[in-house]
């Protein structure tokens, strides 16, 4: 369907966006990239629509009525369509209000000579007719003849070749409206529930590229041998029993190069090539092998199938990578192993994995005792001690079973049928098995079958499992627990003890099955807690508050956000009034109990970054930004105060630079010097009140200064 037709159908109430879709979340960079792809005639994805006479609720004020008949619902492609509507029409689409548009993509400019896209920067665009608002171009308000006249007014002339080039570029942009979005359709007979299922599958299925897969594609573009080298190493690790994927290696590379786990775009640029190749040279040489051997020899991890969350290996590998010569001390290894065990038991990376890697890899980089600190984080989020009730109804896929297996191997447990140690190198073929101590066939006859969900879970509970070899599992057959355990103890006297199986023979009877489970739960919990605690002593250090934690807490009397220093996001221009707001906040913190100002974060905690401020300062960097900020503060608050009480740092969150201004309480009143509306100099005293900065009235100033200072 042509883009122009899509917009017309929206306006004619023939195409609707369902209410179950997320809101418009694209940022301006996303809008710029879409337009760039359209101008260059690159693929821009497909639309998924559904024609139905029984639609779900729509976004916006329109309500469906039966007289409309069948309407078309846009299931996938909403972000692109909304962006194009605003850029082409210059207006908000009817299914949104201006308040719902978090990042308005309008105001995008195009250089008609180079086709470069950018949002307005006065220093680059003012007085340059080549820079035009792309909405005006798309609406036919700009022609090569208009540009010719504008250049004449500037005493400049365009030759015929230049005019032809500009005219071709204008035509290329206006033809965007005639570009097609390939359309896929959901069958009309689908129900609302089926349509929603399809929507989520399209947006979350493994068919589309993940961030890691996209990064790998980019890496392969500037380093063609990368994929094959990665695959060769994966094949070698698989022969050792560690079956890893390409995207795992991409996370490892991101961690080694940038100590983060979320912003895969960091690996996209060709400027990474030399560093990435050097990093991979160390990884495929000593580092990956060292980390794998460390886990096998010290953590009893013989196969990746035993690991519930493979991404716990990323901080370990990065830590080994960062160590000169790779090798760790015995104490470092013990702390690492202890943290690894708890990361598995408490499912550290089961959800929000990239964000947690960001947090943990920063600690690996900055802390002198990273695994103490990482363990403390787990302890703060959940209990370290394993309780007997945690085993109730838990099967062999639960992380506790992996911990049981590692513990039993560490203490030299043996197969109860063959007497062979359950610890051995297995390589790519995983040979250990686990079987019911009380045979399921017998439990099923006692009511523990699939007809009773709770009872069935007890029959499959990991505490009813023994770790055996394949041969032993076949030989065991279906003997009763009492006969099998008595036979095993007679042949191998320590076998039951080593696998933490209760040796009270009364508990081996089928009538006492649930008492057996209770006894083994307690036995395993006691043994595991003792084992984990005994690995090594870790220091209980108070973990500092991270920038992400601060942002999540929101503004307070000691924390304030500013989207920018001087760039007005809505008006898309420099606004020096915003600078006054920053100065006022710093003064208010100083006159109160101190505080932190984060520049590059909007009021809702959304990351804006400093790019617009940098451009507003002539393409500045951190040094120029800090110099400008300090000059403002010196001018309005005084050099002595700024030098002694204000600290400026630059940090990174979600791939964006943020300026953190820490202000200590002042020892004397800090008065802000400014000019009033009449142009006369004034002095004002600001203090914090809740999450805002307020001026102290003259009538209250003396009393406040007396109490505060």
What does this structure look like?
With about 700 residues, the chain is of the alpha+beta class. The protein has 4 domains: about 5-205, no CATH class; about 210-385, no CATH class; about 390-535, no CATH class; about 545-709, Schlafen, AAA domain (Methyltransferase, Cobalt-precorrin-4 Transmethylase, Domain 2, 2-Layer Sandwich), CATH 3.30.950. Helices cover about 45% and strands about 10% of the residues. It is built from 29 helices and 18 strands. The protein has a 4-stranded mixed beta sheet with strand order 1-3-2-7. A 4-stranded mixed beta sheet has the order 10-13-15-14. It has a 3-stranded antiparallel beta sheet with strand order 5-4-6. Strand 14 (about 645-655) and strand 15 (about 655-665) form a beta hairpin. It is globular. The protein starts with a helix and ends with a helix. Residues about 205-210 have low confidence and may be disordered.
Determine the structural class based on helices, strands and strand pairing. alpha+beta
The value of Rg in angstroms is: 32 Å
Fraction of helical residues: 40-55%
Distance between the termini: 69 Å
Distinctive features:
single chain, 709 residues, alpha+beta, 4 domains, four-stranded mixed sheet, 29 helices, 18 strands
């Amino acid at each position: 369907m042509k883009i122009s037709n899509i917009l017309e159908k929206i306006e004619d109430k023939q195409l609707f966006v369902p209410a179950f879709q997320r809101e418009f979340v694209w940022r301006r960079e996303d809008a710029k990239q879409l337009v760039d792809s359209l101008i260059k005639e690159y693929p821009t994805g497909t639309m998924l629509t559904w024609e139905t006479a029984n639609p779900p609720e729509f976004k916006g004020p329109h309500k469906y009525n039966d007289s409309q008949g069948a309407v078309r619902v846009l299931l996938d492609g909403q972000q692109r369509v909304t962006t194009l509507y605003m850029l082409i029409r210059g207006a908000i689409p009817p299914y949104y209000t201006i308040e719902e548009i978090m990042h308005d993509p309008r105001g995008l400019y195009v250089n008609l000579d180079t086709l470069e896209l950018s949002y307005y920067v006065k220093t680059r665009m003012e007085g340059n007719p080549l820079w035009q608002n792309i909405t005006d171009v798309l609406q036919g308000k700009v022609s090569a003849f208009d540009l010719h006249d504008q250049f004449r007014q500037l005493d400049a002339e365009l030759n015929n070749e230049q005019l032809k080039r500009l005219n071709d570029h204008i035509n290329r942009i206006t033809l965007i409206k005639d570009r097609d979005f390939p359309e896929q359709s959901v069958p009309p007979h689908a129900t609302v529930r089926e349509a929603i299922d399809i929507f989520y599958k399209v947006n979350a299925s493994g068919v589309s590229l993940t961030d890691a897969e996209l990064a790998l594609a980019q890496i392969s573009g500037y380093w063609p041998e990368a994929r094959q080298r990665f695959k060769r190493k994966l094949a070698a690790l698989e022969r050792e029993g560690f079956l890893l994927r390409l995207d795992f290696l991409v996370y490892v590379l991101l961690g080694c190069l940038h100590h983060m786990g979320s912003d895969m775009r960091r690996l996209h640029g060709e400027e990474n090539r030399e560093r990435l190749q050097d990093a991979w040279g160390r990884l495929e040489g000593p580092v990956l092998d060292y980390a794998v051997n460390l886990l096998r020899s010290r953590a009893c991890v013989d196969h990746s199938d035993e690991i519930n969350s493979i991404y716990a290996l990323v901080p370990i590998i990065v830590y080994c990578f960062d160590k000169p010569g790779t090798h760790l001390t015995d104490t470092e290894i013990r702390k690492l192993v202890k943290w690894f065990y708890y990361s598995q038991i408490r499912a550290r990376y089961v959800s929000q994995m990239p964000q947690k890697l960001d947090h943990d890899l920063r600690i690996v980089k900055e802390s002198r005792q990273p695994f103490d600190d990482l363990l403390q984080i787990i302890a703060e989020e959940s209990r370290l001690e394993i309780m007997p009730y945690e085993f109730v109804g838990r099967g062999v896929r639960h992380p506790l079973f992996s911990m049981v297996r590692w513990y039993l191997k560490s203490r030299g447990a043996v197969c109860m049928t063959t007497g062979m140690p359950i610890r051995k190198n297995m390589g790519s073929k995983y040979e250990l098995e686990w079987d019911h101590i009380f045979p399921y066939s017998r439990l099923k006859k006692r009511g523990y079958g699939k007809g009773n969900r709770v009872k069935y879970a007890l029959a499959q509970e990991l505490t009813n499992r023994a770790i055996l070899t394949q041969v032993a599992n076949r030989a065991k057959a279906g003997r009763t627990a009492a006969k099998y355990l008595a036979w095993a103890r007679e042949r191998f006297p320590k076998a039951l003890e080593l696998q933490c199986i209760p040796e009270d023979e009364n508990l081996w009877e089928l009538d006492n099955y649930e008492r057996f489970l209770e006894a083994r739960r307690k036995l395993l919990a006691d043994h595991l807690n003792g084992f984990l605690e005994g690995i090594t002593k870790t220091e209980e250090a108070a973990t500092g508050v991270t920038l992400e934690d601060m942002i999540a807490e929101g503004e307070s009397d000691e924390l304030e956000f500013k989207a920018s220093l001087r760039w007005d996001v809505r008006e898309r221009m420099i606004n020096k009034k915003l600078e006054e707001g920053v100065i006022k906040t710093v003064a208010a913190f100083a006159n109160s109990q101190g505080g932190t100002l984060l520049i590059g974060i909007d009021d809702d905690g959304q990351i804006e970054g400093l790019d617009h401020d940098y451009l507003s300062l002539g393409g500045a960097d951190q040094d120029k930004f800090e110099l400008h900020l300090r000059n403002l503060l010196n001018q309005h608050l005084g050099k002595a105060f700024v030098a002694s009480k204000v600290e400026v740092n630059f940090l990174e969150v979600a791939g964006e630079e943020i300026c953190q201004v820490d202000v200590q309480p002042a020892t004397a009143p800090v008065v802000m010097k400014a000019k009033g509306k009449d142009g006369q100099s004034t002095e004002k005293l600001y203090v914090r009140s809740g999450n805002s900065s307020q001026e102290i009235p003259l009538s209250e100033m003396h009393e406040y200064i007396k109490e505060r200072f």
